[in-house]
Specification:
single chain; 142 residues; mainly alpha; 7 helices; 61% helix
């Protein structure tokens, strides 16, 4: 069953503009699908031209029905939170009082404090992401 969607000339013009000019390729794809729908193409052909499945096309149309073009622009990427994130405040406070001499030392202290074991690379990246930079050595800030 095809969806009956209404497209004013202004909406078609906006879809045409956004399918080439939006920064996110996902949004461009959504706009392309709706623009093709506005021109009366069947779902099978739209899916083929856009390079997605018919189910994905239906999801795009559902998004449009829920909130128009603005809803199509929303990007809700899944970004899982690491186990260390819940300890960030206490770890920051601890490392301000007891700056680690090395990543290996920080790794050991983090495991002792939180029970979370991570590689040196993961610890280094975690420490880089803290709100305010931690001292790089025991000799002082910076």
């Amino acid at each position: 069953m095809t969806r009956q969607l209404e497209f004013t000339p202004e909406i078609s013009k906006e879809l045409h503009y956004q399918r080439y000019n939006h920064l996110a390729p996902l949004v461009q794809r959504r706009m392309e699908a709706l623009w093709l729908k506005a021109h009366g193409l069947p779902h099978v052909q739209i899916a083929e031209l856009v390079g997605v499945t018919e189910n994905t096309i239906r999801e795009y149309f559902e998004l449009y029905q829920q909130g128009g073009i603005e809803k199509l622009k929303e990007l809700n990427y899944y970004k899982p939170e690491g186990k260390l994130t819940q300890h960030i405040v206490s770890l920051e406070a601890y490392f301000r009082e007891h700056p680690p001499a090395s990543i290996k030392e920080a790794q050991s202290e983090i495991e002792e404090i939180t029970g979370v074991k991570r590689s040196e690379t993961q610890i280094r990246e975690f420490l880089k992401k803290t709100q305010s930079p931690l001292p790089t050595s025991r000799d002082g800030p910076g």
